[in-house]
Amino acid sequence: MNICSKLILFLIITGLGTINSSAITKEEPKEKNADGPYLFYLPDGNKRIISVDTNGCIKDTIFASTNFILPVTSHSGKHKFEVQLHPITRQSCKSPKSKKLFVISDPHGNLDCFVSVLRSNNIIDESYNWIYGKNHLIILGDVFDRGKDVLPIFWLIYKLEKEAQDAGGQLSFLLGNHEPMVLAGDYRYMDKTYKELAEKLNIDYRDMFGPDTELGCWLATRNAMQIIGNDLFVHAGLSKAFLEKNLSVEQVNEELSRGLFMSKQERKELSPLTEFLYGSEGPIWYRGMVRNDEKYNPLHINDLQLILNRYKVKRIIVGHTIFPDIKTLYGRRVITVNVDNKKNFESVTGRGILIKNSKTFVISDKGILKELYL
Questions:
Q1: What angle do CA 222, 337, 137 make, to 5 degrees?
Q2: DSSP state letters, 291-317
Q3: Any idea where the domains of the chain sit in the sequence?
Q4: Averaged over 16-33, what is the pLDDT?
Q5: Does an H or E element contain 254, and which?
Q6: Cβ neighbour number for residue 333 with a 10 Å cutoff
Q7: Of residues 56 and 333, which shows the higher confidence score?
Q8: Which whole-number Å values give the CA distances from 138 to 101, 122, 232, 356, in the listed order?
Q9: CB atoms within 10 A of CB 43
Q10: Over the range 357-370, which residues count as b (16 or more CB within 10 Å of their CB) and which as e?
């Protein structure tokens, strides 16, 4: 019995679902990287699951059951965990601050670094389970592109979101700029493994996260801005042009969701607001809050204060733009938490921040490094 056949038998025995048609084994890809599962909802009510094991065997299977427990494996086979589907809802864009709030950004398909920082700071255990209790983890976007473990990171966040909720805590994943890039068909930063798989399956890669998929449905309800306590979280930053739009956080989140699966041209045609929010002055792209280069149209400190007043917050915390370490700006009213995850993992330097009670700390893969005096 070959590997693919064994897996199909395992799925039947473990009750993952009733197979309505046989699994289809495709030609092996050039690189033997595990990937998946991609879960599609078919018009007839059945479910299609596509996955690749560590031997490069592609499995394409139809299920009738709704009782799914999905096995997830990283590209190398190093990380393995299971995911159970759960109801998908949009989180409130405003919530009180928990005792501990842990903030990281831009995982970009690097599951090793993502898991390392969560384990070393006692957010997940060795079995990838939530152990952060009633506390809050927020991830400031950009799982897509660059790395080989995009899907396992999405599934782990999806899994932990439900476990955090069950424990009385919260996990929030905000949209970055790379989520709508890929969903619009912009693959310039995508690892070639994904391109090869999509070609083998004769599926446009963006459709593997479309609105008829489980992760597509989930991404369609993610916020782009969120206020927690006195802090506002957004992937890139807020511009003067954004301020002049006088938008509520709810309006921003809903409008970005409306255009998430559209092309650049379709977003432009949908509305001027959609085009603006997805543009260089919008909250998922704007760098002028953290960069002084003229081309980024840097934000004046007076306009920053108007933004803080507009949203009734004291600080704005962003990712997107990479810095060598955690950085504060505008008299510590802006904190940027995006770093080179691999480099900072290896050098045991800043990977994010921990807001604990009234104090803010820089954290690494060894725990707390230092306090940020704000």
A1: 45
A2: ---GGG-PPPHHHHHHHHHHHT-SEEE
A3: 3-73, 94-372
A4: 47
A5: helix 249-258
A6: 17
A7: 333
A8: 7, 15, 11, 14
A9: 6
A10: eeebbbbbbeeebe
| Cβ neighbour number for residue 320 with a 10 Å cutoff | 26
100-114 exposure pattern, b = at least 16 Cβ within 10 A, e = fewer: bbbbbbbbbbbbbbb
The H-or-E segment that residue 369 falls in is strand 367-372
- Mean pLDDT score, 287-309: 97
Take residue 211 and report the two structure tokens written for it: 């609105």
Report pLDDT for 64: 87
Supply 320's token pair: 């997107």
Q: Tell me how far apart the alpha carbons of residues 154 and 171 are, in angstroms, rounded to a whole number.
A: 12
Q: What band does 30 get if pLDDT is binned at 50, 70 and 90?
A: low
* Tens-place pLDDT, residues 99-139: 999 999 999 999 999 999 999 999 999 999 999 999 999 99
For residue 290, which of 243, 343, 247, 338 has the smallest C-alpha distance?
338
**What phi, psi does 45 have (nearest 5°)?**
95, -10
Query: Would you place residue 84 in the very low, low, confident or very high pLDDT band (cuts 50, 70, 90)?
Result: very high
Q: Which CATH superfamily is domain 94-372 in?
A: Metallo-dependent phosphatases (3.60.21.10)
Q: Whose CA is closest to 231, among 138, 337, 136, 317?
A: 317
